[in-house]
């Protein structure tokens, strides 16, 4: 007799979460062969091809809606590409190698990233910049707002956390465009952590209690913003975004990708990633979030994070892969 509590979708959902780990593991191992070689496009290309092959075994009818960025002029899992072995229709958001420069220079926090949701649940974001702000869970709704000054946001966040502004740590990309944000944050009394690359990992870190990061703010890639939103959904954090346009052509492209929506509107978290979301990331180089690829003899050790918005569960998965029997 079938139990009345049996939920086939939930079983499929759980299985897909583990399948996504295999996809990011495969990409991370392939990219790691290029770590420290100074060849970011070759590392990215290896990750792309490994991720494509791994998706061939996943039981979904997937379409890439967030793919590799055109800014990098690197190989792409392109927007509109179909992946999967057949099954339920899914939107796929990928960054086969977040932090190509980090991998090329063997610097911390290079990751391989995949997010998955039912069709129509991810924002179709063009390869432009997005203004972003992220804080963690267990805070009053709307405690920070993209339309508020950084000083006002820091003050509100400190009040919500029952601490002083001087106790807060803001994380942002180390870019000239953030010079004013950095200066005003420090003048307000808060501290700043600067990243050379990798704002998906930074957005996740802002939602984890033991990361030392209280808030992520600034502008970065819009595709990475959607991936970050998927992760933030899974950990019940808060995030807002807004697309930043350089010309009318970018505005028109965003309008075509999301018909009927104001392309310049402030984006709430669920405007970017809604419904049931799955997220997986595997470390290529070690960092605050994940350990990097390790090799010993005929074995490779991977360290991954997999999350589901439905359950809110975070799982850190350590995989030990034997090259004598492993097929990717």
Automatic annotation (TrEMBL):
Keyword ATP-binding belongs to the record: no
A family per Pfam: FBPase_glpX
GO molecular function: fructose 1,6-bisphosphate 1-phosphatase activity; manganese ion binding
Residues holding substrate: 98-100, 129, 175-177, 197-199, 221
Residues given in the record as Mn(2+) 1 binding sites: 44, 68
Binding residues annotated for Mn(2+) 2, in chain numbering: 95, 98, 224
Protein name: Fructose-1,6-bisphosphatase
GO annotation (BP), single: fructose 1,6-bisphosphate metabolic process
Keywords for the protein's UniProt record, in alphabetical order: Carbohydrate metabolism, Hydrolase, Manganese, Metal-binding
Originating species: Komagataeibacter saccharivorans
């Amino acid at each position: 007799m079938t139990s009345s509590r049996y939920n086939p979708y939930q079983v499929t959902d759980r299985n897909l979460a583990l399948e996504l780990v295999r996809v990011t593991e495969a990409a991370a191992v392939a990219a790691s062969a290029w770590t420290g070689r100074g060849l970011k496009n070759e590392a990215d290309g290896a990750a792309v091809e490994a991720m494509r092959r791994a998706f061939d075994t996943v039981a979904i009818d997937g379409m890439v809606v967030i793919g590799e960025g055109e800014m990098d002029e690197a190989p792409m899992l392109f927007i509109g590409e179909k992946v999967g072995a057949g099954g339920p229709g899914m939107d796929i958001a990928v960054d086969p190698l977040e932090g190509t420069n980090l991998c090329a220079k063997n610097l911390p926090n290079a990751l391989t990233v995949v997010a998955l949701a039912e069709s129509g649940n991810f924002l179709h974001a063009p390869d432009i910049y997005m203004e972003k702000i992220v804080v963690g869970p267990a805070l009053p709704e709307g405690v920070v707002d993209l339309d508020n000054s950084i000083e006002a946001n820091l003050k509100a966040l400190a009040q919500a956390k029952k601490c002083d502004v001087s106790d807060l740590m803001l994380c942002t990309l180390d870019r000239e465009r953030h010079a004013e944000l950095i200066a005003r944050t420090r003048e307000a009394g808060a501290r700043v952590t600067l990243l050379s690359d990798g704002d998906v990992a930074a957005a996740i870190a802002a939602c984890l209690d033991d990361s030392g990061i209280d808030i992520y703010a600034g502008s970065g890639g819009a595709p990475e913003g959607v991936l970050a939103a998927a992760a933030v959904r899974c950990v019940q954090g808060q995030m807002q975004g807004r697309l930043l346009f350089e010309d009318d052509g970018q505005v028109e492209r965003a309008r075509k990708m999301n018909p009927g929506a104001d392309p310049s509107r402030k984006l709430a978290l669920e405007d970017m990633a809604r419904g049931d979301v799955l997220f997986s990331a595997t470390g290529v180089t070690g960092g605050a979030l994940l350990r990097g690829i390790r090799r010993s003899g005929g074995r490779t050790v991977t360290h991954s994070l997999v999350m589901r918005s439905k359950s809110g569960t975070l799982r850190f998965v350590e995989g030990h892969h034997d090259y004598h029997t492993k097929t990717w």
